[in-house]
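Hi R.,

As promised on Friday, here is the backbone we talked about, encoded as structure tokens. Could you run it through your design pipeline when you get a chance and send me back a sequence?
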């Protein structure tokens, strides 16, 4: 089962994988991941799921990209295992607010999205997919055949549903969100917010595909809602330390 604990805020090593129009920043031994979406032609970027105390890694990648304009700062959801740095980047680059689902309870400056909204980043189009379950305000972001899946879908698992809210309701929401994701083209690449052993994820891969997850991901394969509820409510690791306070801090901005 996936464990959402960033084990250290001390960066011991830094891995960055660059794909076409996406920089994947894997932050030390935390197993946590941030992303930068970049349009090289129009020199615009979007920052996705930045981490407090890892701001410098985002800034270094912006520097490497030649200081493009920051168009958006996005969160996939309200995190319970780490403190977001999105408000820092909103202030640093003077954007309108953090891009979040319209279901968010965030109290700071925000740009609300609905399912199906399209965000233009230079010549790129980033489609919003509202995928609640892990949280009530969870978005995935689809860029062509690349899905930033947040904490909805991991490599070999899914995000937990026991960090606030009603477990049965959230299980049903997540179940339905996964049914949406499995309708994406099989070759759609999955880029999650957490990878590796730090989160009790067996695979050390940093991305997957829809087709691979349909073949290998037990949670993704369950097609009975009661069986899925059992899976989501039994055998999970301990909750992250101070998770309620982290949520409160992230909602206050």
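Update: got your reply. Pasting your designed sequence below so it's all in one thread:
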């Amino acid at each position: 089962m996936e464990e959402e604990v960033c084990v250290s805020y001390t960066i011991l090593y830094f891995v960055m994988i660059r794909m076409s129009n996406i920089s994947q920043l894997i932050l030390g031994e935390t197993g946590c991941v941030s992303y930068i979406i970049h349009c090289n032609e129009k020199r615009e970027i979007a920052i996705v799921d930045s981490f407090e105390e890892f701001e410098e890694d985002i800034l270094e990648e912006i520097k490497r990209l030649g200081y493009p304009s920051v168009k958006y700062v996005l969160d996939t959801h309200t995190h319970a295992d780490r403190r977001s740095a999105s408000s820092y980047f909103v202030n640093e680059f003077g954007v309108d607010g953090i891009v979040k689902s319209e279901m968010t309870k965030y109290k700071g400056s925000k740009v609300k999205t609905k399912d199906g909204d399209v965000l233009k980043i230079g010549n790129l189009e980033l489609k919003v997919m509202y995928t609640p379950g892990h949280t009530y305000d969870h978005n995935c972001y689809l860029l062509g055949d690349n899905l930033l899946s947040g904490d909805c879908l991991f490599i070999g698992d899914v995000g937990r549903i026991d960090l606030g809210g009603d477990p049965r309701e959230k299980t049903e929401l997540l179940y339905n969100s996964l049914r949406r994701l499995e309708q994406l083209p099989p070759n759609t690449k999955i880029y999650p917010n957490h990878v590796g052993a730090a989160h009790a994820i067996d695979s050390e891969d940093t991305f997957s595909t829809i087709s691979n997850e349909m073949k290998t991901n037990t949670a993704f394969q369950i097609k009975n809602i009661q069986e899925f509820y059992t899976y989501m409510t039994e055998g999970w690791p301990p909750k992250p330390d101070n998770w309620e306070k982290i949520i409160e801090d992230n909602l206050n901005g």
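One thing I noticed while checking it: The chain has one domain: 14-240.

Thanks again,
M.
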